[in-house]
Each structure stands twice: as C-alpha cells, then as structure tokens.
Amino acid sequence: MNEPLSLRDLVEAAAAKRDASGLRLAEIAEAEGFKITVTTINAIRQGTYKSKPRPSTIRAIAWLAGVTDDVAFTAAGQPVPGPPFADELPPGVDNLPPKARRAAIEMLRALVDLNRRALEPLAVTNDGEALPPSWQRLAAYSGPDGHLEREREWSERGEEPQGPGEKE
After folding, report:
1. Cα–Cα dist 53/95, whole Å
2. Domain's final residue, options 75, 106, 133
3. I need a labelling partner for 75 at 20 to 30 A (CA). Which of 57, 87, 103, 158 fits?
4. pLDDT value at position 168?
5. Per-residue pLDDT for 116 more than 70?
6. Domain that holds residue 26
7. Are residues 117 and 141 in the same domain?
8. ∠ CA 25-27-30 to the nearest 5 degrees?
9. In this structure, is residue 1 part of a structural domain?
10. In terms of C-beta density within 10 A (0-12 exposed, 13-18 middle, 19 or more buried), how is residue 78 classed?
11. CA distance 25 to 19
C-alpha cells in the first residue's frame, strides 16, 4: 500500500481492506478495544471532520487500516507520541513532597508549551520569509498610546505637553 496522505485516505483504505461501512469499522475497532465512533469515522470519510483527532482515534484508524501508528500520526499531521512519560520516571517520584511535585509539573508544562510552539507551522511572506507564530497579533499592534492619553489630559487642563527631559 502506498503511504496515505491523510486520515481520510487511511479510513478509505480500512473500509476497502475490510469491505466494511463506517458502522462496521467502528464495531470491529471496538471489539479489539479501540474507542472510535461511527460518527467520527463517517465525518473523516466525508471530509467534514473538523476536530483535532485524539491519539486513541488515530491508533484505532491505524489498526483498522493495517498501518503503523507512525504512518497514521503522520497522516493526521501530528507528531508521533513517545512512550507514556510516566513509565520513564525514576522510582521515588511518587514520594516527592507537594512543593517539589508542583515544581516538576510546572517545568513539564513549560517544556510542553515550548515544544508545541516549536511545532507550529510558520507563516511565510510573499518573499518567502518566515514570520513568527504570533505574527497576526504583532501586525495588529499599533504601538504604545499611553502618551496620547497623557497629552489629552494635559490639553484639557490647559498645560503644555512635557518634553523628554521634564518630569511628569
């Protein structure tokens, strides 16, 4: 089988391989312990699925289509997850005091956020230059305007705007 380009391709391959409808695919997957609904399968087949699929959904589709999880996650446009992180933690972490646990969790949240941002696609200008992920927010920024408010207040009081060397 050629590498599919999307989850839709995988669901179609699963339907063809098993000669099954969306309902039957959901039943087959459920019988093997996978959680995926007929609604999800049919929405993916019809190209109307708008959600980000859960890892459990992607794994179910991979199994139904007879491909590896790597192929399915790639088709879904998601990074392939590693083994459960909890399985890799050293013995004794469950005995950490609450303050140490909170610190470790906050550090992991920060790392996950940094990784997510690093994986976000970059916007590109017409010249091919990459823009930062926050380019829309930056483009909408009109700059500081606090000085305008102060100048308005001074004007209402009949005062002259203060120069850069004068104290406010």
Report:
1. 35
2. 75
3. 87
4. 46
5. yes
6. 7-75
7. no
8. 110
9. no
10. middle
11. 9
